[in-house]
Amino acid sequence: MDAPAPGAPRPREADRALALPRGLLVLLSMAGVVVAVAGLRSASGIVGPAFLALTIAITIHPLLAWLQRRRVPGWLAVVLTMLVAYVSLVALAAALVFSVARLATLLPSYQPQFTSLVDQFTSWLGERGVTVLRTTLHPAVEQRLQAAFTEPAPQPGSTSPSPQLRSDRPRVPPLDDAGDVRR
3-state DSSP: the chain helix, strand, coil percent, rounded to 5? Predict the structure, then answer.
């Protein structure tokens, strides 16, 4: 039996006994990732805001350090840094609101393109033998929708159990059994 080289670590029998097959190690690692992701997802109400706070703190720390190097009193440096952080967050929120409002105004202009795209896709599916079924509403649901869009709005000061939609909204066109608009 060959003796190990001097100074070389010898494999211990206990280490060999605990060695796991590579496939099992991969499987256990994947299970650990799934458990970690599930844990993060279940704690997302805590983890999300905590990471946001950490990101904001890391982002504004250089400003605080710069103010302190300029010999600004500590309390004033913290107040100015917090003020900059709040103004930045309000500006980001305002930009988001403005962007969503702009999207809401631009979206109707894309309706013809969207309709054309859906028609092209439907015809492409039809060419390949896929039947596209149109979804129809239950007649009672259709009647309620039509009533909701055609009932007059409640008068100011009147009490109504549920809010009514404005009467200047377009009517929902009636559908036949195939889901097409009735003429």
Answer: 65, 0, 35
